[in-house]
Amino acid sequence: MSFQVALNFEDGVTRFIECRPDETVAEASYKARINIPLDCRDGACGTCKSLCESGSYDGGDYIDEALTDDEAALGHCLPCQMTPHSDLVLRIPSSSAAAKTAAATHSATLVGIQRHSPSTAEIALDVNDRDALDFLPGQYVNIAVPGTDQSRSYSFSSGPGRRQISFLVRIVEGGAMSEYLAKGARIGDRLELTGPMGSFYLRELTRPALLLAGGTGLAPLLSMLERLTRERTSQPVHLLYGVTTDQDLVHLDTLEGYEDVIPGFTFDHCVADRGSTARNKGFVTGLIGTSTLYDGDVDVYLCGPPPMVDAVRGHIASLGVTPANFHYEKFTSAAVRQTVEAA
Ligand code: FES
């Protein structure tokens, strides 16, 4: 028996390793040829100090100079000493290059193209080595666009438990992936993915959650919701989804379905276009009130274009509320996700 440990590096690269209950995370990492920072290996120096964001473990033996009780209470841990009691997610204080590892590359086959509307498509892929592609719900991969030397970053819209993976694609005039989907894409095409990456992923729900999506920023939240169908959380989870025009709205039926299977899940949506037929016209900020923020006892997950992310952060600050955890990701149509931060 072993547990899965996700090692998230400072550059956004995530590697997954198997760790037995009787071995330390550091031993398992080195067996997987991932050189996480280590010095004494004895719980004395604190060099390996990391942050455990999810899961339970035995912290092992160490001295106060390496890890204080206050730090341990906040989730800091020593991989050279800790042994897992469950799957874990750790933030490692080094780059993947410093740990002599890198994001993995996977080959996949294009098995589906769904054109939701002129502005949004969804692609489905079969990954050749699917069992080797682990990811946390909310993360993304870089996809090399066939026939070009460019790649684009896409968050999984599918949950980690599905064999087939999928991604929402915003159709942008002249965009590399948009042009490929419009002109050259054929079922059966080979694509190459690199990842998973990103620190925008679902943490253990210990309080209410507010999920906010702008446009195709819905994708990582769909992946999170798929995970929640299996976790049976009892925490309230509210999703607000904002788009520019009616044609940008996708997956409303999926969200309605999740209301039936995730206890405590509710959602609402709005369309900025005043000519929309949607019940709510305007921006998601118009739907964020103090009741959705639980006086700050809430974990916020926000994904959208930079102006939307900045507007939401400013709006929440203007309400005088500081969420317990605020995770956000900004995306652009550029090749790489612009910002991935957790505050
Ligand atoms: Fe020194 Fe872990 S390597 S405390």
Would you give an account of this structure?
- The protein has 3 domains: 3-91, Ubiquitin-like (UB roll) (Roll); 105-197, Translation factors (Elongation Factor Tu (Ef-tu), domain 3, Beta Barrel); 209-342, 3-Layer(aba) Sandwich (Rossmann fold).
- The chain has helices at residues 25-31, 69-73, 176-184, 218-231, 252-261, 306-318, and strands at 3-8, 14-19, 50-54, 57-58, 76-77, 83-84, 88-91, 105-117, 120-127, 140-144, 151-155, 165-170, 190-197, 209-214, 237-243, 265-271, 299-304, 325-330, 339-342.
- The longest helix has 14 residues, at 218-231.
- Helix 4 links the parallel strand 14 and strand 15 (237-243).
- The radius of gyration is 21 Å and the shape is globular.
- The strands form 4 sheets. The protein has a 6-stranded antiparallel β-sheet with strand order 11-10-13-8-9-12. A 6-stranded mixed β-sheet has the order 16-15-14-17-18-19, sandwiched between helices.
- It is built from 6 helices and 19 strands.
- The structure holds FE2/S2 (inorganic) cluster.
- FE2/S2 (inorganic) cluster is lined by residues 38-41, 43-48, 66, 78, 80.
